[in-house]
């Protein structure tokens, strides 16, 4: 049971053995007014929604990682990208339907990876997470960086076809190949859904 105490030490919820990390599910990518909007991003929404709903049904830990930058301070990401995701702007608002629910984690990041400069590795370790399902945008930038850092921090990253996207299809495909070969697993959407809500699959058999 979540919240149990064992000899003075909290016991993690066993359902958190696998977690869902959503990356940059914000208006910057999914709203036509967003700085990085591209029309094909809309295609990923149904798949990400299926994973999110499965994680919620399965009682999994859900982390919503998203970029936020400060306009008034130097930010080296600005040497590679146009100004984006500034505090108080439309860019940083969650895409409709992807706002964090109660007990889900709202994690601000300032670099591509959801791990770099954040509490994510500590958070996942304390919750007993071993496997991390990653979904969102963009496959060749923030998704790949997050997957690589998940692997480097000792987690098994899982990427789901139909739940990641990029505006550069050739880099999307190359990133999936590299992730499968060097960092983790790439699975079909149905399998990703069943990993997050396995009891439903057992009940259907």
Describe the structure.
- It is a single chain.
- The chain is α/β, with parallel strands linked by helices.
- It has one domain: Isochorismatase-like (Rossmann fold, 3-Layer(aba) Sandwich), CATH 3.40.50.
- The protein is built from seven helices and eight strands.
- The strands form two sheets. Strands 5-4-3-6-7-8 form a six-stranded parallel beta sheet, sandwiched between helices. Strands 1-2 form a two-stranded antiparallel ribbon.
- Helix 2 packs parallel to helix 6 (about 190-195) and helix 6 (about 190-195) packs across helix 7 (about 200-205).
- It is globular and about 45 Å long.
- It starts with a strand and ends with a helix.
- Mean pLDDT is about 90; it is low at about 200-205.
Reading the helices and strands in chain order gives EEEHHEEHEHEHEHH
What is Rg? 17 Å
Could you state the CATH homologous superfamily? Answer: Isochorismatase-like
Quickly give the structural class. Answer: alpha/beta
Which sheet architecture does the biggest sheet show? 6 strands, parallel
CATH class: Alpha Beta
Strand order of the largest sheet: 5-4-3-6-7-8
Beta-strand percentage? Answer: 15-25%
The helix content is: 25-40%
Task: Indicate the CATH architecture.
Answer: 3-Layer(aba) Sandwich
Topology, number of strands: 8
Low-confidence stretches: 201-205
Short description:
The chain contains 7 helices and 8 strands. With 205 residues, the chain is α/β, with parallel strands linked by helices.
Please describe the topology of this protein.
Elements: E1 5-6, E2 9-10, E3 18-23, H1 27-30, H2 45-57, E4 61-67, E5 105-109, H3 120-126, E6 131-137, H4 139-152, E7 156-165, H5 169-183, E8 185-187, H6 189-196, H7 198-204
Parallel strand pairs: 3-4, 3-6, 4-5, 6-7, 7-8
Antiparallel strand pairs: 1-2
Helix pairs in contact: 2-6, 4-5, 6-7
């Amino acid at each position: 049971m979540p919240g149990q105490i064992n000899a003075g030490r909290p016991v993690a919820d066993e359902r958190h053995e696998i977690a869902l990390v959503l990356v940059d599910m914000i208006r910057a990518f999914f709203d036509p007014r967003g700085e990085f909007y591209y029309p094909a991003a809309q295609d990923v929404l149904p798949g990400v929604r299926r994973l999110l709903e499965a994680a919620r049904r399965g009682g999994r830990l859900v982390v919503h990682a998203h970029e936020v930058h400060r306009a008034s301070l130097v930010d080296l990401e600005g040497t590679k990208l146009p100004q984006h995701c500034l505090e108080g702007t439309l860019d940083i608002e969650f895409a409709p339907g992807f706002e964090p629910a109660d007990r889900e984690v709202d994690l601000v990041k300032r670099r591509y990876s959801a791990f770099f400069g954040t509490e994510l590795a500590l958070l996942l370790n304390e919750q007993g997470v071993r496997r991390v399902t990653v979904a969102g945008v963009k496959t060749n930038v923030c998704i790949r960086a997050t997957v690589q850092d998940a692997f480097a921090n000792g987690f098994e990253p899982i990427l789901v076809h139909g739940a990641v996207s990029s505006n550069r299809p050739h880099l999307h495909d190359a990133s999936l190949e590299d992730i499968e070969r060097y960092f983790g697993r790439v699975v079909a959407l149905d399998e990703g859904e069943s990993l997050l809500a396995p009891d439903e699959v057992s009940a259907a058999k």
